């Protein structure tokens, strides 16, 4: 293990890289897209694995790398083939039409639908049909050190995931140790959740994974239950759990939004919130592209690598003007490298720009 690699952040990057290389989708022909740190209002997942239809993914690329939010999805999914008054073409969204008009203009500005004015009426038509490109969503919680107290904390999160069933599978990824995963930990977690152990030491920087417990498929097309509040387990806490039902249509819409954000973000976007323009920042060419700080002589976390870091030093202007190693200096080169890798995982993306 590299110095500084014992953090949850470094483990998460390893887990994402492992999933990108080794995840076995339910259908052999699915393409895997991995993202990290995204979710819904009251639940954020560490790693998301999307199993995608290859043809659909290629068609999705025509809409650009940026995510389509819920308003834009409403427009692109229902935009008609031929010019039509927008209120006749799009189903009532459940909120005022003026927001639909705004979304329509944004969609036109992005070039994903066409609009025109006929008299006072705005008409629209689609440029391409929006594809059904994401087949399955797998949510992974990363816990490098799965001891009894970490497992306790996970139970609440995984019970939430299972009850809501927004993702097709829920998993825990943990670091492989010399011992087997304690059976008692397996007993505590919901049986529907899978456990995978990742080995990062002595494997040349590339994690290898082995499944300790297989996940069960969750009922994503059924209505789900959102757990809002639960008793804290204290002997004196006699409160009841609070929950609400969510219907299948809500879940389907949320899954589309999550897939869109995962498509746009990927897992390499961590560099956007770090300081690769610091002279001490160095990407390691060890497969996982873990960031490395020369000043600290270890992998740094995204939290500490900021302008507020006491050792931050901007890269010297000469690095940029001498074209080191390519134009823009090492910070810009790192961002370009990671962006290129993200695009490479999005079939068809290089053909649209
Ligand atoms: S900002 Fe701090 S942590 Fe980041 S590379 Fe520079 S010295 Fe290292």
TrEMBL record:
Residues 337-346 have a biased composition (Basic residues). Residues 317-353 are annotated as: Disordered. This is Uncharacterized protein. InterPro entries: DUF5787.
């Amino acid at each position: 293990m590299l110095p500084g690699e014992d953090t949850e952040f470094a483990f998460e990057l390893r887990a994402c890289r492992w999933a990108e290389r080794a995840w076995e989708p339910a259908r052999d022909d699915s393409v895997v897209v991995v993202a990290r740190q995204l979710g819904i209002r009251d639940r954020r997942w560490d790693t998301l694995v999307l199993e995608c239809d290859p043809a659909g993914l290629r068609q999705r690329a025509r809409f650009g790398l940026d995510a389509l939010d819920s308003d834009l999805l409403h427009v692109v999914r229902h935009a008609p083939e031929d010019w039509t008054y927008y209120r006749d073409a799009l189903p009532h969204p459940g909120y005022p039409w003026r927001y639909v008009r705004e979304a329509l203009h944004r969609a036109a500005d992005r070039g994903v639908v066409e609009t025109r004015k006929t008299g006072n009426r705005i008409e629209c038509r689609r440029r391409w049909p929006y594809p059904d490109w994401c087949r399955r969503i797998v949510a992974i919680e990363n816990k490098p050190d799965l001891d009894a107290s970490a497992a306790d904390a996970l139970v609440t999160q995984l019970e939430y995931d299972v009850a809501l069933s927004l993702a097709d599978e829920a998993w825990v990824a943990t670091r492989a140790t010399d011992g087997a995963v304690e059976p008692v930990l397996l007993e505590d977690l919901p049986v529907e959740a899978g456990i995978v152990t990742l080995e990062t030491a002595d494997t040349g920087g590339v994690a290898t994974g082995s499944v300790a417990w297989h996940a069960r498929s969750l009922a994503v097309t059924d209505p789900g239950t959102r757990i809002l509040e639960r008793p804290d387990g204290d002997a004196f806490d006699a409160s009841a759990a609070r929950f609400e039902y969510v219907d299948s249509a809500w879940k389907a819409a949320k899954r589309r939004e999550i897939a869109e954000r995962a498509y746009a973000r990927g897992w390499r976007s961590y560099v956007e919130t770090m300081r690769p323009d610091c002279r001490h920042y160095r990407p390691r060419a060890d497969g996982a592209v873990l960031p490395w700080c020369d000043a600290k002589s270890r992998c740094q976390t995204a939290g500490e690598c900021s302008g507020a870091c006491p050792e931050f030093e901007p890269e010297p202007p000469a690095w940029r003007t001498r074209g080191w190693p390519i134009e823009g200096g090492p910070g810009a080169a790192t961002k370009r490298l990671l962006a290129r890798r993200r695009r490479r995982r999005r079939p068809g993306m290089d053909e649209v720009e």
